[in-house]
Design goal:
72% helix, mainly alpha, Arc Repressor Mutant, subunit A, Four Helix Bundle (Hemerythrin (Met), subunit A)
Amino acid sequence: MEDAVEALARKGPSSAEIADWIRAQIRSNRFVPGQRLVEVDIIRQTGGSRFKVREAYQRLAADGLVEIEEFRGAKVRGASMDEVRQLYRARAALEGLCAADFTERASQADREHLQEIAAAMEECVENERPEEFGRLNAEWHQLLMRGAGNLVIEQVVKRLNTPVHHLLFGTFYRGERLREAARDHRAILAAIMANDPAEAERAMREHVENGLSFLRELDEAVHFHT
């Protein structure tokens, strides 16, 4: 008789795991806004069942990352710059609060871990490794939210981050934007280590708003050349 582990393995990935896989394809620009998600292809690539794939679509639709159309299936959802502006303004407020709360509440271990990630990101800037910088940046922001001790804000910000504007893929952490993000992180970290919650909040708000400014400029440049 097969044991429970083998039986579970035979069931294939969960709907949450399939959703995470699709999300990763979108973030890496392998699935792009407007692209239809062919159910049979997702089943083949993930090993999931038809039911689990459809359940994954529902999860992603709830996050605002895909659209489900009756009789036509699911497709990757895009976002207008006006929607991106609203999302970033909400993020600036919420992540600013988290930076202040982290300053006041985080453990010494969390503070040291934040410094370690920041140092690793600096190396990515020096050695021009934008993909790794992006991964570490996500980890850095998540640590700030967890260390702040506000699970509600962490969950809300995660949802705000999902309907990512198509301009962000593959271009966000390049050149001067990479260096600017690193400078912003240094300012946030300095305020945290100086135990200045008000300055940490201000610096975090500015950091998120700088990201929005970059996306606006990029969007305008794309439209100018098209």
